[in-house]
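step: validate -> pass
step: tokenize input -> pass
step: predict -> running
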Amino acid sequence: MMKRMIAVDEEKCIHCGMCLRDCVASCLEFDDQKIPRYIKDGEKMCLACQHCLAVCPTGAFSFGGLDPAASDPVTTVDSAAILGLIKSRRSIRQYKEDDVPAEKIEKLKDMLAYPPTGVNAPSLRFSIIATRQKMDELRKITYDCLKSIPADSPLAFLKDMADKSLQAGRDLVYRGAPALVIVSVDEKKAAETCKNADPIIALSYLELYAASLGLGTVWDGFAVALAQHFPKIEAQFHIPKHCQLGFVMALGIPAVAYARTPQLKTDNVEIIK
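step: predict -> pass
step: emit ->
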């Protein structure tokens, strides 16, 4: 975990107080020279959100030994382009045989540091199965588990669905995807009210960024259900100790292209004035 030490370049500080006003935990104050510092026990209160570093207009505020100059500048993003990405995103169930290029896997990995979590808790852990070879190994284990379900089991319908899917040459569970992202939650670190939402938020960010990279994704609730029932499957997800499976998303290069967005209505939205 990053150390919560702060440092202020007194020559750059303009004493504007923006860092104090924007501090989520209200753990900062001015000293006698109007230089920001922690209040008593402020370091323990700090959420390590880096708002102080991000909001400082002159780059005077450093957190955790980080150089403000190394941060990316905040720029305005085209809202029409973002809306277009949201409207055109589709669940992809047809993938090319190719592996996801390693450089795109790295970009996804880097992005996963940024989705928000409740009280900025470092609660999420990610595993990425990045090659079709490893996915094929997972597929074999998964379908072997499905074949082992007794005919009188409440899960027998899953076996029947899987059998019909395989006979039709389809992968019902992972949709033939060459990669899989698994997110788990460290329940000791997660905020109690957010531990179920945090994984979904992270994968929602990921699916939109993946679409911008030309990748397709699909939310894989089937894989989640099977992993919760079969330890052999869950073991392939490399979930760390003290963590619980949150959700799973399959991804790869789409083998299908959509020419237009769907036409949906917003009659399920109430504007309260």
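step: describe -> The two ends are 43 Å apart (CA to CA).
step: cleanup -> pass
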